[in-house]
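Tutorial handout. Part one gives the primary structure; part two gives the three-dimensional structure as tokens.
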Amino acid sequence: MKIIQTPVRFYPYPGGVENYALNISKELARLGNKVKVICANEPKSDIRNFNGFKIERLDYLCKIANTNLTLSLPFRLWKEKFDIMHTYLPTPWSADWSAIIGKLRGKKVVISYCNDITGDGVGNIISKIYNNTLLKLTLKLADKIITIGPNYLQSSKYLKKYSSKVQFIPIGVDRKIFKKIDIKKQNNTIFFLSILDEYHAYKGLDYLLEAIKSVKKEIPNIKLIVGGKGKLLEYYKVKTKKLAIENNVEFQGFIPDEKLVECYNKCEVFVLPSIDSTQEGFGIVLLEALACGTPVITTDIVGIAQEIKEYKTGIVIKPKNIEALSKATVEILKNRNEFSKNIPTLISKFDIRKLVQEIVNCYYEVTNQQK
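Part two.
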């Protein structure tokens, strides 16, 4: 099967949707499909062939609300030969043009709907206009809409009208990459990973820093490792000084893939205290940490929250609750082994190979092709 993937950005860009598209593309290629990714050239990269599939990187005019405007995208899509167009929301433009060109070409379109499109200030105005215009058209044109969160059909007011073509397929993790390795845990160390810009402030680092100040009273040598870079990095550094926790927080900047598994294995707890259910989708970093044998702390808005509670592989709290976040951190640091026992059972449910096979089945369903 010939498949075009159109995430707005792609590897080596470090975002959650980008990693999701990367994992899908790798596995589709491994299964023998002809896969091509067409995306914005951010960050600039010369990688054109990767893990058995092709990548075409387009120049972009500018970015509006974290979306790259690749003016050549519709022309490039029109020239491609494909059976399936698989695109991704919450990034307009690439998703919209993919749906439009796919339909004009008489081809099938699948959308992975990771979360709603929202914003602050001017971004909020733009998102409202988009959600009431182009988003409706894009969802209408789609042949199948894949949600990565089990309750997203109910929580998203934009999806309910299209429930007949919505299918839940969770995100998977590559357990050949993310796994336990023979490395010593660093005592009282917790790990947080995100892009540190205004578009990812919903990941909750502000609240985690406040919690560290409280945890420090009970565990003086608590250490928070912050992975990621972005425009708000200096803001977070200043905040640690104001909270008098600068000696308890280490900003490591961008962490390359070859070091990431090591970081997940070294820490005793991974924390993702997301605060906005409209922006947070599944929380793939939680799966990566769990696959490395590390228990987690997160909020009840992430897609995997229910499973974490059910299998007791971490602690799930309410968003923006600094006190609960502090208590959860102390509890897991003191009883980490108890929270680690059921991790293998839970993570086996989210193997990328199994879940991409469900996506392939979806492709065959919408194209009426035989396997």
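Part three, for discussion. The chain has a mean pLDDT of 93. The radius of gyration is 20 Å.
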